[in-house]
Amino acid sequence: MHDVSKLKLLCSCFCKQYQSEAKFYVEDRHPWGIRHLVVVYDKGGHGGRKEFITGIPNEWTEKDIESLILWPMKDPEAPYPAWETPARAFGKTQLFRWWADEKSDDDTAA
Questions:
Q1: What is the arithmetic mean of pLDDT over 85-108?
Q2: How would DSSP label each residue in 54-91?
Q3: DSSP for residue 101
């Protein structure tokens, strides 16, 4: 688990899919050179894991991240929240706006 005391708290919200409070942090100085969204679940998330980590595209602002976090899922029975959809449904390592037919950086990197 990350030491979140060294990360910037972005926001928090209740995650309906996991029935857990979720706290969102931005890790600016990741060893791989890209920012990461670190989500910490009080009661555990997918598979009971307490933490979810994914890359943030370089051009995304904090407002872009917050918009994704608050994006409503069309299916109220969706098995995972909006911020996990790029990883869980599409197998991507970075966030992207899948509902807007945006390509992920995984697809555009060559």
A1: 85
A2: EE--TT--HHHHHHHHTPPPSSTT-SS-GGGHHHHTT-
A3: T
Q: Is the pLDDT at 110 greater than 50, yes or no?
A: no
Is residue 96 within 8 A of residue 86, CB to CB? The reply is yes
CA dist., res. 32 & res. 104, Å (int)? 18
Are the CB atoms for 50 and 1 separated by under 8 Å? yes
Q: Is residue 93 packed enough to be buried (19+ CB in 10 Å), middle (13-18) or exposed (0-12)?
A: middle
Cα separation, 68 vs 63, in Å, equals 9
* Cα angle for residues 41, 19, 72 (degrees, 5° grid): 95
How many Å apart are CA 67 and CA 63, to the nearest integer?
A: 6
Q: Show Cβ contacts of residue 30 under 8 Å, excluding neighbours closer than 6 positions.
A: 36
